[in-house]
Amino acid sequence: MALYLSENDVTTLLSMEEAIKAVEYGLKEFANKRAQNQPRNRVVVGSTTLNVMSSSMTEQKILGVKNYTTTPKGPNAYFLLFSEEGELLCLMEADELGRIRTGATTALATKWLSKADANTVTLIGTGFQAETQLKAICEVRNIEQIKVWSRRQESIQSFCKQLQSEVQAELLPVSDIEKAVQGSDIITTVTSATEPVLKGEWISEGAHINAVGNNRINEREIDSRAVKVADVIITDSIEQSKNESGDLVLAVAEGVEVWNRIKNLSDLLIGSVKGRESEDQVTLFKSNGLAIEDISVAYYVYKKAMNSGVGKEMKI
To answer: What does the record list as coiled-coil region(s) (predicted)?
Structure first.
């Protein structure tokens, strides 16, 4: 019998703190060659794209695959977890799983790359992923103020009103993105933009940038100068970045050196590469979203569900 977990089951079982620990564990397993990760593959029919990502963890003897569609209405995701014998252990709805693990990955990068006393954030974007980005960053830094910008002013106001009671930091709606970015310790872009919304000329010394929203090779949220001014560039997968990170690929096309100085987040976590080395350095994390991040969190949720009796058994 396989276990079925709904979106509500997942959010009930998984806190951001737990997700951060699970993602860190999975990435360390990957760095230590005890996990495999298959980059995202896509097929398209009309305006619907099917995305497939798979991974395995040797020590846990599990395999998993996330299948999700993206449409003009938004994503629709499911995660399948298998045993070493090929038995389906769990089918879980995975929209919230994906949102939480994406935030958790940003939190890890922010913890390792931003200044230890960072307390101001500029959040660019108020869409599907923005809420968990905000909450994740607040888990790893003592944030006092978060400036929120989006193309639509009504979205900014609604977002801040909805989330103010859920974080201790002051949420400040802003209309001038340039002023919002200048002097900010942490800048996170989480938009559906196809052209840059963040310009390198706005970025102050010592800032940390999380570029999260884009994973298509011909689109980007940050301009080439934002990549160029970064003293340290980290991504969750160099291999995947070369295939789908427009933020980096388009910068390379415009003459910015990237591939000879970029490092994997997983290697940073185990200490085999260096991150920030001084207070005035600018650091950049390019998030792609990896299957190893999904499986590590999904397996944690599955174990917790089994121990607490959450979910429904289904006969297949």
So the answer is: none
pLDDT tens per residue across span 261-306: 999 999 999 999 999 999 999 999 999 999 999 999 999 999 999 9
Q: Does the pTM of the predicted model rise above 0.85?
A: yes
Enclosing domain of residue 41? 2-98+292-314
Number of domains in the chain: 2
Same domain, 131 and 81: no
Mean pLDDT of the chain: 96
Q: Residue 272 belongs to a domain with what CATH number?
A: 3.40.50.720
Supply the CATH number for residue 91's domain: 3.30.1780.10
